[in-house]
Design brief:
With about 450 residues, the protein is mainly α. It is built from 17 helices and no strands.
Length: about 450
């Protein structure tokens, strides 16, 4: 239809639809909460568009009514998606963990930069636990959740890194002010740097609302300017001290751009990340080995070659750099477990076949030792099924496998070594194997993704 001949009401509705489509991507990637300023702005804009759509006069014409109905439905869909993004259970889970991190920072870090003694073990363990829990939050591939998780992880990991750097790489002890007039000024700047470090942590974690990254950047730049203005010619030791302090300031400045980095799609959407692509390529090769091994009629002929290839994959995974992203580190860890589990399966199959081949040597074995090996035979069969399992935790087969593994653990618990040292060691190893298979089954079905 010629645009010039369109009814004015339809033209107006199409203009509104275009305006709605222009902000759709903002809704899709919105990673905040319903209390955020951006949320309220988007909500107001979409609500205003709804009123605009409702005010269009259809003049009782069916075609205009249909266009208005579609425009209203699309706008309402975006309003609903915005609300769901802000109130998604996993988004609220991320926020709850973040609040724990804020409390930890207020309790442990702030006093440290006001003259406290040191960072406590409680803080180091607490912050590491928070990073791990954030990494494990499921996003279901939802862009808004990925972004929220990454933004939060970025802040918490930055705090962790700042503290570790402060503890491990403090500049040389301040030189005596009597050595040179510039030394007292450098010492004074270093004290300001320590205060700025504490302020930066508080700003990153949202526990200091009286300071901004922009102002802090100006403060740090001013400190560098003060240091540059000092005359330290001919004093190598003092010049090196000044250089160390400048490097400390530069390290702090790089954290001031975290917000912008966390907003870029390449940072939180890891599907095209080079490290993730390498991990996925290695996982594909592992699946090929798995398929070859499980399809072969005489799998024992392939054990040596398959193990060598799998061990090579472990080496390739070790070479993958996760950078500072704990989600990539977690993806690599899971891939290592996948490969290692298949290697363990081959090792056990080899041991069982060798034991069967030299059966006469088992005649003199302790009965408890024989009992453990019998259970290991059952575990090998279950492990094969677990390796091939591709369902979720609601599947009957998952519950069956979980029950079978639990029964084997109970059977091992019932084995009495009767003082036989070899039986004790074998039982302990078998229990660890059963627990590892159970863990692998849980890992395969926990719906985690990067």
């Amino acid at each position: 239809m010629d645009m010039g001949n369109q009814h004015p009401s339809i033209k107006r509705l199409q203009e509104i639809q275009k305006e709605v489509r222009d902000i759709e991507q903002q809704v899709v990637i919105f990673s905040g909460l319903s209390t955020d300023r951006d949320y309220k702005k988007l909500e107001r804009t979409l609500t205003k568009q709804l009123f605009e759509i409702d005010s269009v006069d259809t003049e009782g014409k069916g075609d205009i009514q249909q266009v208005r109905k579609r425009a209203a439905q699309e706008t309402e869909r975006l309003l609903k998606e915005l609300e769901q993004n802000a109130n998604h259970p996993h988004r609220l889970e991320i926020e709850a963990i973040y609040k724990e991190a804020q409390s930890l920072v207020e309790r442990e870090i702030t006093p440290f930069y006001k003259g406290g003694n040191c960072i406590t073990d409680e803080f180091e363990e607490g912050i590491q636990d928070i990073v791990l829990r954030l990494t494990q939050v499921k996003t279901g591939g939802k862009i808004s959740l990925r972004k929220a998780r990454y933004r939060t992880l970025t802040k918490v990991c930055a705090v962790q890194e700042i503290i570790e750097g402060c503890i491990k790489q403090q500049p040389s002890l301040p030189l005596s002010g009597d050595a040179h007039p510039s030394v007292s000024k450098i010492n004074s700047v270093m004290c300001d740097v320590n205060k700025a470090r504490g302020t930066l942590i508080a700003v990153l974690m949202g526990v200091n609302h009286n300071e901004t990254c922009r102002h802090l950047s100006c403060v740090l730049t001013g400190l560098i300017a003060d240091l540059d203005a000092l005359d330290v010619c001919g004093h190598t030791e003092i010049r090196n001290y000044r250089k160390e302090v400048v490097e400390e300031i530069n390290k702090l400045q790089k954290y001031l751009d975290l917000e912008e980095e966390a907003d870029s799609a390449h940072a939180y959407d890891l599907a095209q990340n080079q490290s993730i692509l390498k991990i996925e390529e290695i996982r594909k090769k592992k699946k090929d080995v798995h398929s070859l091994l499980f399809r072969a009629e005489n799998a024992s002929d392939l054990y040596l070659g398959c193990k060598a290839e799998l061990q090579g994959l472990i080496a390739h995974l070790d070479e993958v750099s996760p950078g500072k992203n704990p989600c990539i580190r977690e993806a690599r860890r899971r891939a290592v477990i996948e490969v290692q589990t298949l290697i363990t399966y081959i090792d056990l199959k080899e041991a069982l076949e060798k034991r069967q081949m030299y059966g006469e040597q088992t005649v003199v074995e302790h009965q408890s030792h024989k009992a453990v090996w019998s259970i290991l035979g059952h575990l090998s069969q279950i492990q094969r099924e677990v390796l091939s399992f591709d369902g979720n935790r609601t599947d009957k087969n998952y519950m069956r496998l979980e029950e079978l593994l639990t029964k084997q653990l109970l059977a091992l618990d019932a084995v009495d070594p009767q003082g036989d040292e070899q039986s004790k060691v074998a039982r302990k190893q078998a229990v660890k194997l059963a627990q590892n298979i159970l863990y692998y089954l849980d890992m395969k079905t926990d719906e985690w993704e990067y």
